[in-house]
Write a structure and sequence with these properties.
By secondary structure, chain A is mainly α. Helices cover 59% and strands 0% of the residues of chain A. Chain A is globular and about 50 Å long. By secondary structure, chain B is an alpha+beta fold. A six-stranded antiparallel beta sheet of chain B has the order 1-2-3-11-5-8, with helices on both faces. Classes of the chains: A mainly alpha, B alpha+beta.
Chain lengths: 217, 219
């Protein structure tokens, strides 16, 4: 199967049966293209939808792998990561919950876990009883916040990330893309650890990312 | 299992967890806290959005010609994802349950003092000693201070020290130099997960008796 001769296919729209609840739910559906495609892969093992996801995310995943500056990095990491992540996307798409995260966020979490595990396997000779994925098993629950709130926070993250002062943006990129801890970032930038952390906190405040844990129940 | 926690990991620690740059041992503790705390789970979801946004701004790199075909060829033969574990409603966090299973915890409990048992975990790293501590009801632990950093998450029951009562899900950080004497609650045993970065120094006069057992000794 080649990437070039795929028909354009509109993702299936959810069936609305006139029921008020269903109508309400349909307005709450995620409408972005990638999430729709991922849902199709999960529900019907739709290969064309998967091909579109591959075309979009493949090069980003390779870029993400190459941004890593971690111990264990090797030149083939990018291509290996693309293979491993996309196969996981195929296998795990059935468990994707669009109410909880956009496809981009979901694929990011798969990529992050894969990248860490691949690097650890390369740089570590010890038996590793846990994979990074094991840290991310969350209890089944009602989505803690509504899809509308989710989308608002995604928009907020996106717009405020673009406006962060350079010194805050720089640290977030080091941590998320290069895979550096705050301590490593502080050593590299020649800044005290406290400064790195306070820049991170300022950035998080602007993006309104952290749910306040101050309030008593 | 929701919002029971009053003590949470610092936001910079959650961010490192989201970026995957937090070391294994503290990651185990953060994942254990998340099992109990829906507020931190929500924060984490948003932190993941930050990571996702940054990833999508990464410079895309061209793939090898056959990359797509290789994946397609591997789809059907590749292992089916294991069915979602039925672990979701158990009282222990997934990472901890997995460690308990791998380490046969039921057989490795060791007496640390009259009221404290310990079971150490093999976690594939040597920076921290990761262990479960079981404090019997009303049990007093020896007063000790810390040379290194210690993270503790209450998994079951509760305990208290001079400052507060800690309940299921609570996440505590002890800095080097902190002295404390935790006490188990009267109404039942307390089980905590801990990650300790250096040996504990005992401060009570009989401390020397405990020392051999408190030494960092990853199995």
């Amino acid at each position: 199967m080649s990437m070039h001769n795929l028909e354009t296919q509109t993702p299936a729209t959810p069936r609305i049966n006139g029921d008020r609840v269903a109508v309400f739910k349909s307005t709450e559906k995620r409408s972005d293209q990638w999430s729709q495609l991922l849902i199709s892969v999960g529900e019907t093992h739709d290969r064309q939808a998967f091909a579109k996801l591959f075309k979009h995310f493949g090069p980003l995943l390779k870029g993400f792998a190459h941004a890593s500056r971690n111990e264990g990095w090797f030149p083939g990491l990018g291509d290996d990561l693309v293979q491993e992540v996309m196969i996981k996307v195929w296998n795990k798409a059935g468990g994707y919950n669009a109410e909880k995260a956009s496809a981009t966020t979901w694929i990011y979490t798969v990529a992050r876990n894969c990248r860490i595990d691949m690097l650890r396997r390369k740089s570590n000779t010890q038996h590793l009883p846990l994979e990074n994925e094991d840290f991310w098993h969350e209890p089944d629950e009602e989505t803690p916040i509504s899809l509308l709130q989710q989308k608002r926070s995604e928009d907020k993250v996106q717009s405020s990330l673009a406006q962060l002062p350079k010194e805050q943006d720089e640290i977030l990129r080091k941590v998320y893309l290069e895979g550096k801890s705050h301590a490593e970032a502080s050593a590299e930038l020649g800044l005290p650890l406290g400064t790195v952390k306070s820049r991170v906190r300022l950035a998080l405040q602007k993006m309104q990312v952290i749910v306040s844990t101050e309030a008593q129940e | 299992m929701n919002n029971t926690s009053q003590f949470h990991p610092d936001e910079t620690m959650l961010l490192e967890f989201s970026a995957g740059t937090l070391a294994t041992a503290p990651s185990i503790c953060v994942s254990a806290h998340l099992h109990f705390c829906s507020k931190c789970r929500t924060s984490l979801l948003r932190l993941d959005q930050v990571g996702a946004q940054l990833m999508s701004e990464a410079k895309p790199l061209e793939l090898e010609d056959h990359a797509f075909d290789t994946v397609m060829a591997n789809l059907d033969s590749s292992k089916k994802a294991p069915a979602e574990t039925e672990n979701k409603r158990t009282s222990y966090p997934f990472s901890v349950s997995k460690l308990m299973k791998n380490n046969l915890v039921s057989q490795t409990w060791k007496r640390l003092s009259a009221s404290v048992d310990v079971a150490r975990f093999e976690t594939g790293q040597n920076e921290f000693e990761v262990a479960l501590h079981k404090i019997c009801a009303g049990g007093k632990t020896p007063k000790h201070d810390h040379h290194g950093l210690e993270y503790t998450v209450v998994l079951k029951g509760s305990f208290s020290d001079e400052n507060a009562v800690y309940r299921e899900g609570d996440f505590l950080v002890r800095e080097p130099g902190d002295v404390h004497q935790p006490m188990g609650a009267q109404n039942g045993e307390c089980i905590c997960l801990s990650a300790l970065s250096a040996p504990i120094k005992l401060t009570n006069p009989f401390g020397f008796l405990m020392k051999p057992w408190l030494r960092i000794n990853p199995m």
